[in-house]
Model the fold of this input.
Amino acid sequence: MTGAPLLSVRGVTKRWDSLGAVESVDLNIYAGEFVGLVGPNGAGKTTLLRLMAKLLEPTGGALWLAGHELAALTQRTVAKHVAVVPQTAPADFAFSALEVVLMGRHAHLERFENERAEDFRIAREAMALTDTAGFAERPVTELSGGERQRVTLARALAQAPRLLLLDEPTANLDLRYQVQVLEQVQQLVRDGPLAAVAAIHDLELASRYCRRVVLMRAGKAVAEGPPAEVLTPARLQEVFGVTAEVALNPLTGGLSITVLKALSDGVTTM
Done:
């Protein structure tokens, strides 16, 4: 990619006492690309996303958003540019789905200011994009996990972010909506000055929708680049502890990954 990165991660480390979750990660994210974070459980993917959103402060290194050091920005300022879709959509209060989506507009409102007609328009457009408009008035406590996840994505889109961060966005979705959500994110990245970074467990989906993947292990980014260059049999064996065959899928443009066996002395299993 050319031009200045939208987000720059420079030598970022996050530790709790002696335990390291992220270790000296360097990464640039550019507008117009969809980047996948892949790796086994505990590799540091979620922690890295939370650092990018300023939900965690790094122990070392620094992050820069559009040329501004993230540490110097208020959380409200960050929320105007960065939206997060967590792995689990909360349902603690009986807000309607529309009310939840409208929460994505709060960073754009003045203190104690009510939502304007423009905010309602943006919220309803986000719900239309995520196929959630049909239950706009239903309490989120009555929605399924997959429906709540799509409402959470709509809330993030209503923020009108420049950077969209997604933590396992397809974890609670059936096959139809897994494809639909990732296609929507891919299209949004193509259509506007938006970047997206997603932690994705499914390597085949990551290879199909992400232009670039970052392979993580034990808090470190061990490889990054086009999926076909990163998700090789040798690296799958090294990082996941499995023997696998990898081939280009001519129907999807992504990869077909067939796990043949787990190695008894492997690092972990998928």
